[in-house]
Amino acid sequence: MPWRETSVMEERLRFVARLLEGGGMSEVGRDFGISRKTGYNIFNRYRDDGLEALTDRSRHPVRYAKQREDVPPLR
Fold first, then answer.
1. Beta carbons of 11 and 39 less than 8 angstroms apart
2. Tens of pLDDT along the chain (75 residues)?
3. Which of 43, 49, 60, 68 has the fewest Cβ atoms within 10 angstroms?
């Protein structure tokens, strides 16, 4: 039997669907191998923003810690 290939978004969608069907966060999280905290993060993102929230987000920082906004960059 070949392995079934799934994307991260499909797994998150299956996770949210199980919660909406009435599964408990601890039980469903255990089945998917994620913590309750991660489960709540995924579910709250889905509840607030819909399906678009289940895609991966950029990890690029919005700003850098030592970046100053009042001084123009050196050339």
1. no
2. 677 788 888 999 999 999 999 999 999 999 999 999 999 999 999 999 988 888 888 878 777 777 666 666 666
3. 60
Between CA 29 and CA 42, with CA 26 as vertex, the angle to 5 degrees is 50
What is the identity of the amino acid at 10?
A: E
User: Residue 6 corresponds to which amino acid?
Assistant: T
Closest CA to 28 of 13, 16, 41, 37: 16
Question: CA 42 → CA 31, 46, 49, 70, distances in Å?
Answer: 15, 6, 11, 36
CB proximity list for 39: less than 8 A, separation 6 or greater:
15, 19, 25, 28, 29, 32
Q: Which amino acid is at 66?
A: K
